[in-house]
Write a structure and sequence with these properties.
This protein is an all-alpha fold. It has a domain at 173-239: Serine Threonine Protein Phosphatase 5, Tetratricopeptide repeat, CATH 1.25.40. It has helices spanning 4-67, 72-84, 88-119, 124-136, 140-153, 157-169, 173-185, 191-203, 207-219, 225-238. It is elongated. The chain starts with a helix and ends in a 17-residue tail after the last helix.
């Protein structure tokens, strides 16, 4: 036999438990919403912070570049910041401005050095700086002409030798052989000058002459890997030169 009062108490307890569970679920849902909102706010704040930092970095990079547009590293940094921000057009403008600044700066520097060299054509430091301007511009033919122009205004065997070595290193072999030959004839007959002359002859197909000069240069102390490489190549191509016989001993006078 059931007890109506007991059943009623059980129903009330179950109802209370269900109500409590609903309240807890509501609280948990509300708490979850709060957490989600907080995370969203934090993410937005973080994103905004990153954007602000990115904008500041971009402004700083561009400001530094604008102050010195000929600097390659500053130009590279500013263009990279624009690229990272998705602003490709501005990045290209930076690169174009850098190229224009370089061209303008080089022209001014070239004219300045030419003016100073006209007054002091024997100044090898100024001449080297002028050649560097052309080389950075990748204008080797312009460098060659400028080199020849100012050396002829103040020629010395040593200057011809230096110019000849430069010509060889930049593949002007015919003119290199002429300049180096002038240096040797003028008295600048050191092992390195003869070595470069031999290397130039090799490139011109004058292998017998090249071999003789290269062998002499190495024997006299020229320490260049390229000379040793060409010596081995020539020995393979045309055969090693026979060793010179020892000089005859001087005989004493008979008593």
């Amino acid at each position: 036999m059931t007890n109506p009062e007991l059943e009623e108490d059980l129903d009330e307890q179950l109802e209370a438990q269900r109500a409590q569970r609903k309240r807890m679920m509501g609280w948990m849902g509300a708490a979850l919403v709060v957490v989600v909102i907080a995370l969203a706010i934090a993410a937005k704040s973080c994103s905004g912070g990153r954007k602000d930092a990115g904008r500041l970095q971009l402004r700083n990079a561009v400001a530094k570049f604008e102050a010195n547009p000929v600097d390659a590293e500053l130009a590279k940094a500013a263009a990279a910041e624009y690229d990272a921000a998705g602003r490709k057009d501005e990045a290209e403008k930076v690169r174009h401005k850098h190229a224009s600044a370089l061209a303008g700066g080089d022209k001014g520097r070239e004219q300045e050095l030419r003016t100073r060299l006209a007054a002091d054509p024997a100044n090898d430091t100024l001449l080297g700086q002028l050649i560097e301007v052309y080389t950075k511009r990748k204008d080797l033919d312009g460098a060659r002409k400028a080199y020849a122009e100012f050396i002829e205004k103040s020629p010395t065997p040593k200057r011809h030798a230096t110019f000849g070595a430069w010509l060889y290193r930049n593949s002007f072999y015919e003119q290199a052989s002429q300049e180096l030959g002038s240096a040797v004839k003028g008295g600048n007959d050191d092992p390195y000058t003869r070595g470069y002359l031999g290397l130039s002859f090799y490139e011109l197909g004058r292998k017998k002459e090249a071999q003789k000069l290269i062998d002499q240069a190495i024997d006299d102390g020229a320490d260049m890997d390229t000379l040793r490489v060409h010596q081995a190549m020539l020995d393979e191509e045309i055969g090693a030169q026979p060793e010179a016989p020892p000089a005859p001993k001087k005989r004493g006078k008979k008593k």
